[in-house]
Design a protein that fits this description.
A alpha/beta (about 425); B mainly alpha (about 325); C mainly alpha (about 280); A: about 425 residues; alpha/beta; D-Maltodextrin-Binding Protein, domain 2; about 50% helix; globular; C: about 280 residues; mainly alpha; MetI-like fold; 2 domains; 14 helices
Chain lengths: ~425, ~325, ~280
Amino acid sequence: MRKALSVVWLVVVALLVSLSVFSPTAAQRTVTIEYWNINNQGFGGAIVDHLIELFEADNPGINVEPRVQESYPGLVQNLELQLASGNPPAVVQIGWPYLDYIYNNLPYIPVGELVERWGGAEHVAQFPENILAMTRMGDELVGLAYSLSNPVVYYNADMFVKAGLDPDNPPTTWEGWLEIAPQLSEANGGIPVFNFGYGSDNWILQAFVESNGGRMLVCEDGEYRSGLDSPEAAAGLQAWADVVLSKQSLNAHYNEATPAFIAGETVTYTYSIAGRGNIQSQASFDVRATTFPQFGDHPVRVPSGGNLLVVFATDPAQQEAAWKFVQHLTSVAGLSEWTRGMGYIPLYEAVLSEPAYAEFIAQNPIQQVGNSQRERMVRWTSFPGPNGLAAGEAAFRATQAALSGEMSAAEALAQAAREIDQLIAGQPCTE
Amino acid sequence: MDRTLSLPTFARYTRTLTRSGAQFWSRSLRGLQPYLYIAPALTAIVLFVYLPLVRTVHLSFYQGNLLNPTRVYVGLTNYTQLLDSPIFQRTLLQSGYYVLFSLIGSVIIPVSLALLTLHLTDKEIDFYQSTLFLPTVMAFNVVVLIWAFFLLPTPNGLFNRLIALFGQAPQSWLKDPLFALPSIALMANWKIMGFHFLLAVAGLKAIPRECLEAAYVDGAHGWTLMRRVVLPLFAPTGLFLITVTLIGSMDAVFTPIRVLTEGGPNNATNNLMYAIYSEGFRFFRLGQASAMSVILIVLFGGVIYWQYRLLDRWVTYER
Amino acid sequence: MSVETWRVRWFARSLLSLAALIVLLPLIYMVGISLKPAGRVFENVFLPFTTTVTLQNYENVLKTVPMFRYLWNSILFSFGVAIGQLLLALPAAFAFSYYEFRLKKTLLALVILSLMVPFVVTYIPNYLLLADLKLINTLPGLILPMLGISLGFGIFLLRQHFMSFPKEILEAAMIDGAASWQVLLRVVAPANISAITALLIYILINTWNQFIWPLLIGGGREEAYTLTVGVQMYFINPEAGNRWGAILAASVLAALPTVIVYLIMRKGVLRTFTEGAIKG
C-alpha cells in the first residue's frame, strides 16, 4: 500500500515537474510555417507581406515565412525536393496547370482531411460549387482556389480617340476587332494593334481554342485524349497566328509584351486581369479593358489563371497553422485585399459586398470587366499523368510553330495531338 | 569550359608519366602516404562526379520524378523512345548547328585574328588579348541581358531600329525559328571568342621564333609561310580548340537558352544539354533526362577519343 | 621595315581593333543604358549614352533589391569553393607529382577524366543527393558538389607546376628531417605561391559566374541567392515600364566584382586561363 502510494506520488511529482518545465515553453512555442508563392516585389510581394502581418497579429505564436519562387514550374521543382528531404513547406501556391501533377504525384493534405482535423467546414461552404469544382480531382479537394484570373483585352483609349473611334464601345467580337484594326494602326503610326502576353504555357492558346468551340482535352471511351486536332481548335490558333504573321500583332513573352503596351507600342494588350494593378499604376495614358472577344457564335470560354493553395505540412502544429493561414488568405478580408491589389477575381459573393471591395470595384471599370467574365471561366487544362507537363509543352510548341509561320495551325496542332495522345495514353477519365 | 582545358595535355602526360617519375622519392616516401594525400580529393570527385554518373545510368532504366526517381522500372524504353522520337532527332541536329556556328565564332575567327598578331609587338598583342577577353570574366546570365535588350521584338529594339533603316519591318528575333538559333549562337560566340583568341595566340607564341625566321630567310613569305610553316606547327593547338568547341558548344549556349528562349520557339533553340535540363527540371521526367545524359556522355566520349587518336598521330608526325 | 610588312601590320591592327570594338560594344551599351534617365532609354537608341547621365537606376536597384546580401552570398559561395578546392587539390597534386605508387596512373586518369563529365549530367543526381542531405537552398549545398566537379583542373594545374619545381630543394628539406606535409606547406606551397594564387582567382571567377547551379540549388530561398540568381529574379520580375535601365544597372553591379579583379590581376588571370591548355 505504501509502496503503491509512493509510486503514485512519484508520478504526480514527475508530472508536475514536467508541466512546470514544459508548459511555459508550450505556451510560448512559436510555430513557423513557410508560404511558397511566386509574388516577387513586382508582382504583389508587398501585399503578401501585408497579409502575413495581419495574420501574425491575429495569431500570436504563428510565424509565417514567405518564400518567393522564380515561377510555377520552378516552384514545383523545389517543392519535390523539399518533400523528398522530408521537410515539406506548409502552404504552397500551385499554378493551375500543375493540379493534375500534384494530385497524382505529391503527398498533399486534402481539404477534407484538414477540415476533419482542424475544422473550418463553414469556411469551405462559402465557396460556390463551380469554384470548388476547379480544385476537385476525383472526389477530393486538392486545395482551395486562391488567385483566380482570366484574360481581358486592355486597350489604349487615347489611341481609339486618335483613330476617331469611340473608346466607350470597344469591339466585343474578334470580327469587330479585325475590322477596326487597320484604322487603329494607321492613326497611331502603324504600330501593331494586337499584343498577346504569353509565357511558356497554354493559357492564351486555350482561350483561343475553346472560345472557337474546340477543347484542349476530351474524354473518350473512359480515356483522356487531346482535343487539339479538331478544326475548331485549329481555327482558334490560326486566328491568333494570322494577326501575328501579318504583323498586326506583337509576338512577345509577357515580360516584353507588358512594357511594350505600357510604353504605347501596341494599341491593345490581351493579358491576365492579375496584371491590372501593375498596368494601371505604370501607364501614362487612359487604360481601359474589355472582355475576351467572341468568335462567331461560339460561347467565350476563358481559362482560369493564377493558383490554388495547397497544404503540405505533416507536423500537426504546422498543419493546423497552415490551415488557419489558408483560411485567412481566403477570408473575405484577405481576398478583398488580394483582389484589390492584384486584380484577381473574387471567389465568392461575400467578398463582393465587403465595403472596401465594393467601393473599389465601383471605381474600377477594368476590374469589373474581369469580374464579369466569371461565368465564362473554365479550368485551365492540366494534362493528366506523369507525362502531363511534357504534354503541355507539346501544345506550347504547336503554338510557337503556328505563330512563327513554321506550320499552319492545323498541321501544328495535329502533330501536337499525336504527341500528347502518346504521352497521356491510358489516363482514365469519367464524363 | 574549365573542364576541357586539359585535353591535349592529357594525351601527352599518359605517355610521359612513367618517365617523369621521381625515383628518389619513390624510395623514401613509400606506402600509404600518397593515398592519404589523394583520398580527400578523390572522395570529392567520386562523390560528386562518378557516383552521380552511375546514378544517372541507373535512373535511365526507370521513369520517375524528383520525389520518386525510381517509380517504375522500364528497361530500355527511355532509350528506344528517344531514338524513335523526331523531336529528339531534331534536338541532336540542332546541337550540330550550334557546333557549326561555334566553329566559325570560336575557332575560325579567333584563330584568324591570332594569326594577324604575328606581325605585332607583344605589347599590342597583350592589349588586344586583354580587351577581347573581358566578356569571359563576366557572368553570362548577366551580360546576356544586354542582348535581350538589343533583340527586343518592339520597333524600339536596337536591332529592329537597325533593320528599319533598310526598310524592314520589326522582327521577333527570339520567336522566329530562323533567327532564334543564330541569335543565341551569336551571344555564346561573343562571350567565348576572346578566350579562344587568347589560347590561339598562346599556341602561336609556342612556335619557336627560329622556325619562322629560318623559313622567312629561305624565302617563304605571306601565304606560303603560313601554310608551310605556321599552320602545321599550330595544328595541335588548333585541334585542341576544335575539340573544346565541339564539347563546349552546347554548354556555351545553355545560359542564354535558359534565360531567353527555354529552347523555343518550337524547339528551334534547343540542344541536347538544355533538353536534359528541361526533362529533369521542367517536366520532371528523370528517366528521359537520364537516358539523354547517357547519350550525351557517349557522344562526348566519342569526340574525346577521336581527338586523342588524332593528336597521337599528329604528335608522332612531329617527331 | 619593308612597305609590305608595314601594310600587313596596319591591316592586322585595324581588323583586331574592329574585333575589339565589336566585343566591347555590348558592354559599353550595358553601362550606357544603365546611366540613361528612366524615360529616355529608347531615345537615340543607337547612341549608348545620353547627354544627361544619372545614377537613378543604381539607386533604385540598391533600394529595392538586397544586392549586398546577394554579394555576400556570392562571396561566401565562390570563396568556399575556391578555398575548398585548393585544400583538396594541394595535397593531391603534391602526391601526384612527387610520389610513385601503384595506382598513380589509374587515379590520375580518374581525376582528369572527371573533367570530361558535363556539369548538366550531374545536376539531377547531385540534386537528389543534396535533398537527402537536407542541403537544398543552403550555402553548404551550393558549395559541396562544386568541390568535386571541377577539382581535377586544379589538381592538374598544380601538378604541372610542382613537376617543374627543382627536386634538389625537396631532397634537402627531407634530409633535414621534415615530414612530407611540412615539405608541402613550408617548401612546395610557398615556392609555387603565384600558381596557387592564380588558380584561386581562376576558381573564384568561374564560381562567381555560375548561374544554373545556384539557381537550381538556391533559387527557392532568397537567403541563398547569389548575385547571378538575384539578377535573374530581378529580370523576370514583371514590374513593367521602362525598366531596362534598372535591369542593366543590376547587371553592371553583378558583373563589376569579377571585372575589377580582372583589371587588377589581368596578367595573372590571362596566364592561368592559358596555362591549363597549353602547358604540359
